[in-house]
Amino acid sequence: MTDATTPPPVTDPQLSQQEIDSGKTMAILAYIPIAFIGLIVSIISISSKNNAFALYHAKQALALYICWIIVALCCLPLCFICIGFPLLIATNIGGIILCVLGIINSSFNQCKPLPVIAQFVDKFFGKIQKV
Fold first, then answer.
1. Distance (Å, rounded) from C-alpha 114 to C-alpha 64?
2. Which pLDDT tens digit goes with each residue over 38-97?
3. CA 73/CA 117 separation, integer angstroms
4. How far apart are CA 100 and CA 105, in angstroms?
5. Nearest to 114 by CA among 75, 70, 36, 56
6. Among 117, 109, 118, which residue's Cα sits nearest to residue 8?
7. Are 53 and 20 in contact (CB under 8 A)?
8. 68 near 95, Cβ under 8 Å?
9. Cβ(42)–Cβ(65) under 8 Å?
10. Does residue 58 contact residue 125 with C-beta atoms inside 8 Å?
11. CB under 8 Å to 114, separation ≥6 — which residues?
């Protein structure tokens, strides 16, 4: 029994194995949150739009980073009443878990949306397509 919220297919049938292989490194690097590497790689992949697999994961990663920063900024004022620090730690752990999920998906050649972030990807980057 399927409902209206079933996820899209795990691998995009339009992507060839050659395109997946050529964009796999950029897709994996897009999820690396250390020293803004993932943010820079995501922006480069989105601006170049030359590989559909890398572009898919770059849009996912960039939406993740934007949401992560927004939630972290919302936690900062709460630090004055001592609830902000645990929320900030939980936010960072959640962001790292989503980055690891993205790395796993891109490593196994899957175009699988991230759990919480997928709804924001279409809002932020829905019109960006491969040229």
1. 9
2. 888 888 888 887 888 888 898 999 999 999 999 989 888 888 888 888 999 999 999 999
3. 17
4. 9
5. 56
6. 118
7. yes
8. yes
9. yes
10. no
11. 60, 64, 98, 101, 102, 105
